[in-house]
Amino acid sequence: MLDVVNFEVIGGDGGDGAVSFRREKFIPRGGPDGGDGGRGGDVVFIAVNNISTLQEYSNTRTVQATGGVKGNTKQRHGATGDDVVLYVPTGSIVWGVMGDSHQVGVAVKEIAMNGERLADLDEDGMVFIAARGGRGGRGNKRFAKSTRQTPMFAQKGMVGQQKHLQIELKLLADVGLVGLPNAGKSTLLSMWSKAQPKIGAYEFTTLEPNLGVVYLGFDSFVAADMPGLIEGASKGVGLGHEFLRHIERTKVLIHLVDMSREDPIQDIRIIQGELASSGHNLGEKPVMLALNKIDDPDASVRVELLHDEIKNEFGNFFEISGQSGEGLDSLANKALEQVRLNTKAPSDSVPILKPKVTETRRFSVLSEDGKEPELVGETPEWWALTLDLQQEEARAEFFDRMKRLGVERELRRAGVKDGDRVKIRGLFVVWDM
Ligand SMILES: Nc1nc2c(ncn2[C@@H]2O[C@H](COP(=O)(O)OP(=O)(O)OP(=O)(O)O)[C@@H](O)[C@H]2O)c(=O)[nH]1
Ligand SMILES: [Mg+2]
Fold this sequence. Notes:
By secondary structure, the protein is α/β, with parallel strands linked by helices. It has seven helices and 20 strands.
């Protein structure tokens, strides 16, 4: 059973840098003192063991982190935007769906990454930064130099990353429901969860395991309703025991006993024997014994009659009715407790997964016949998108930085001449060198 959700994640935009000048008594024109903008927050996934499903994201469309705050006068920096943390179950896989789009005014660039597997969150506590917030812009103070003591421009904040994601989770059962055929396993699952397994007054109604999510307040676990086991199942009698591998990784088993049958004690022994000899580690798992069908008068008499004998031979048990619902809440709570108890504590050092850095070089120039050359690379793109290239000083700053990065040399080598258009992240920049 697969749990799948789709939504968009957007990092917070960086705050803009400020343009401002000192104002002091007796100093008519002070120097620049515009502060930097704050960084935008990230959208972060954290894998946790105590969530079983992606249910809480089933209606999620977009998740956006907070933007950074604008820089201020007197060199005051804007505050950093808050991260958004999304808790997902351990075992979740994050896929890229439609592309990594960055919107800048009218220019949108989509980096194709359909079907790219971005992260396997297969360990408790693992962190994945899904969408990074944009860097804050620098205030005008930082653009002052001897030849330009009063810069009239600042840098804009960079937009946050934007991605369409698909999150997938292969549901793993936490709790296995076992017992003889007809013991009421499917009935119990249908009472506990939204699952609708087939229920029948005959044996072997269930042929394949059914999974259902059992919610208890903010907590939940996944229960697997199994086909019935009979004597000799481990040797292939009945449906055999192959299906038991589905509950190999469960944390606890619930052994249901049909108390309306004549000899429940013998029934319990049979199942215990089968679990012990079935392999799949089932013999070592904690088992909760649940005496079922106590709504039935015969069954309830038998529970009373055999109470002490069962307790002596098998220890504590629960008394329930999957039909009337009696005892089901306390059984579910106890099962959840067992699941928690048998869930490994988070390991000390869990890796933080960062989005793959797609470029190894700092930048590169792509040229194709008949098309404008394209400049790609994080740093040149960042400057192109955050400096106002219409503003004379900012434009000069941009080309100055491109020269220092070695971009200009590379463009020349690619045949770019003064006045040619160069594409950068969906923008077209007329190059003057
Ligand atoms: N009186 C009574 N009948 C029950 C109860 N739970 C289940 N039954 C009945 O017992 C029969 C078997 O129920 P299922 O839930 O299909 O049993 P199962 O253990 O899933 O059976 P298999 O899939 O064949 O292994 C059905 O007729 C149910 O209506 C109960 O708590 N009380
Ligand atoms: Mg069944």
